[in-house]
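PT: before anyone asks, these are the final sequences, not the draft ones from last week. 490 residues across everything. Please model them as a single complex and drop the result in this thread when it's through.
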Amino acid sequence: MRIAILGFGSVGRGIARVLLAKDLGIAVTGLADSKSGIIDAGGIDLAAALARKEGGGPCGNPGVSPADVVAKAKYDVLVEVTPTNVETGEPALGHIREALRRHKHVVTSNKGPIALDYPGLRALAEANGVLLKYEATVCGAIPLIHAMQEGLAGNTISRLYGVFNGTCNYILTRMAAEGLTYEQALAEARELGYAEADPTYDVEGIDAGIKLVILANTILDLSTTLDDVERTGITLLSPEALQLAEDQDCTIRLIGEIIPDAGVLRVSPRIIPKTHPLVVEGTLNAVTVEADLAGDLTFIGKGAGSTETASAVIGDLLYIRERYVKGS
Amino acid sequence: MKLEMRDQPGQLVAALKPISAVGGNIIAVIHQRETSTPAETLDVQIVLELPEGRLPNLLELFRAQGINVVRIGEERLLYECTLIMIGHLMHTDLSDTVDRIDRTGSAEVTELSLVMPAIDTPSSARITIRSTTRAEMKKAMRILRAVAKQKDLLIIEPLEDA
Ligand SMILES: NC(=O)c1ccc[n+]([C@@H]2O[C@H](COP(=O)([O-])OP(=O)(O)OC[C@H]3O[C@@H](n4cnc5c(N)ncnc54)[C@H](OP(=O)(O)O)[C@@H]3O)[C@@H](O)[C@H]2O)c1
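LR: through. Structure below.
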């Protein structure tokens, strides 16, 4: 099977390393970062591309644009792993549409396009006889989408809630454990590379909110946008508040919650008993699904990371190959 | 509640039956022969827990058994919710915040722990609200959310409802 990869950052390089390390029978015939691209029907030398990128250069040829890769490379699946834009989804949205129109399957880790136009993209994929997969957009390595779409297919989900943002979970874990202020814990998270220079997207609950929108729209048959999510971040949390929770054997976590029938879609800090399964440490994610047939299920795992996110992308790729890509 | 029944074998058991019939839970039964009551009656005090709205049912069943309910004690507040507030709690009149809940008459703030780290920095408080019914608790939460919005306070609710 041949794939083209857009984006050669943490996730893109993670995928490349897995493909080099494991013989999965996947060849990369197109690759692009923000400023360069390569198209090679014979298969790109990934080790060389990684070396160029890690040396600080572009991954390919400055004369080849991402749009060229999408339109001209010979591939079965487009792997779209560029940065998330929550307002427009672009340029990823355009690239994904173009690939679907070319009858190419698409696998993405990019939340923007899925949160903004899943119904449109799905219809386009169906019209062109291809698949659109997005496991990596929610909770990194945890195969939550697959579990809900396949394993729990006959269930009705009455509630879904959990820890969807590793950065916030790390900050709250540290505030509780060490009595740090929010600012101190954030500074520490930044130093360790768990928080961006501008942490707004994580700490204001936007990232968790957009994951709720993806789950609501793609699995729970709702039609929501980020504006429908009632959102409170963690920036105002005080060490004293965590201590007050601690006094009662509880702690505070940023919880995303969907209750479809009650129209609840919210992200907010919540008091939670320390023995609760959703109280996970560090950057872990944890999600509980309440299903009518299966009962309660809790998924815990790494919500981010280069290899962990690559795991979800590779899972989607192999799913597509099993079912759709002939002769590979 | 205090019951008055005929002092006959089996009467007490007969009195307890309707309680489980309406889904109640008996916590304590105290009976004593008081000198003030006629010799042939027995006074019994029962402490019990009842699901919401079942009291009229139970009274009906008692009446049918010929059991006289002398007195119904205080209904205790069974629903409890503990939450944390962060903000300028004193500057925004904490006692008024508490009062708005107490004023409902059906829910009240029963505990409050306040931590004020330094002047001009936001303080944090843990408050416990109790109410007789789930609906009253929901109402109290709605009021508190509105007050928090108005006073610019952050409310951290528990993951699970009362
Ligand atoms: N990192 C994770 O753990 C994780 C987990 C789940 C989901 N995701 C999602 O996965 C996506 C990628 O994340 P990441 O951490 O790999 O990001 P990243 O490290 O910032 O890398 C982004 C890559 O995309 C390239 N790029 C930017 N604009 C582009 C464009 N218009 N066309 C082609 N390439 C473009 C960048 O090019 P340059 O190298 O030239 O800057 C870079 O190589 C994001 O949407 C993110 O939300 C990430």
